[in-house]
């Protein structure tokens, strides 16, 4: 077992780590309570930018997890934090849902289709030919292209859905411009999360279920990385990659003392 005695703060992925198909994974509620009882700083991370932290807190509550909304960090919040640091009080044309637009409002950005500083693409189920055309034209006119996350597909009860990465690829094909992606696997998302809870990489752990996003970004951010096997990774998947997490555990239940 890798030494986690110096870990004083935690970041954790949500789907496949704390919840699966809307239900808490055994051990997840106990781990969250343990962190709260010991005043351990933590954030629950998700690349999904559709929902606000309040929405997600309610969804987690219904699945059996008591996570306050201020303990949730989405790719929309990370994107907004990045834009605020790059150009305070700027403007953006946004394709996205409430999670994205609320985060942009909260940093004081103006959302406009008239000469914006940025085109920001988040997760959405409601994009149209019209707003894709607008985004393409604004990027060609000089707006900088930002995307919340690179996921090409997302899950649903009926099968996969096209996600942000697929829509970004369409815009890139039309403009020749690649987006700057803030969410995982960009370690920028972890650094902004650590800034929120005033944690340091040397004493922060990251729990995830994916080698290609959680673990690699955690390694690049200098974190203690924990891979749990309750999501999509198994030993065969792990062997595909030239890097390794600090620890491999069956589930978050193994972290409960």
Describe what this molecule looks like in 3D:
The structure is a single chain. The chain is α/β, with parallel strands linked by helices and 257 residues long. It folds into 2 domains: 9-47 and 184-255, HAD superfamily/HAD-like (Rossmann fold, 3-Layer(aba) Sandwich); 82-181, Rossmann fold (3-Layer(aba) Sandwich), CATH 3.40.50. 35% of the residues lie in helices and 20% in strands. It is built from 9 helices and 15 strands. It has helices at 28-37, 53-62, 75-86, 98-106, 129-140, 164-175, 188-197, 211-220, 235-239, and strands spanning 9-13, 19-20, 23-24, 42-46, 72-74, 91-95, 110-111, 118-121, 144-147, 153-154, 161-162, 180-181, 204-208, 224-228, 247-249. The strands form 4 sheets. Strands 5-4-1-13-14-15 form a 6-stranded parallel beta sheet, with helices on both faces. A 5-stranded parallel beta sheet has the order 7-6-8-9-12, sandwiched between helices. Strands 2-3 form a two-stranded antiparallel sheet. α3 (75-86) packs across α7 and α5 packs across α6. The mean pLDDT is 95.
Short description:
With 257 residues, the chain is an alpha/beta fold. The protein has helices spanning 28-37, 53-62, 75-86, 98-106, 129-140, 164-175, 188-197, 211-220, 235-239; strands at 9-13, 19-20, 23-24, 42-46, 72-74, 91-95, 110-111, 118-121, 144-147, 153-154, 161-162, 180-181, 204-208, 224-228, 247-249. The longest helix is centred in the N-terminal third of the chain and has 12 residues, at 75-86.
Global shape = globular
Mean pLDDT: 95
CATH architecture level-2 label of the largest domain: 3-Layer(aba) Sandwich
Strand order of the largest sheet: 5-4-1-13-14-15
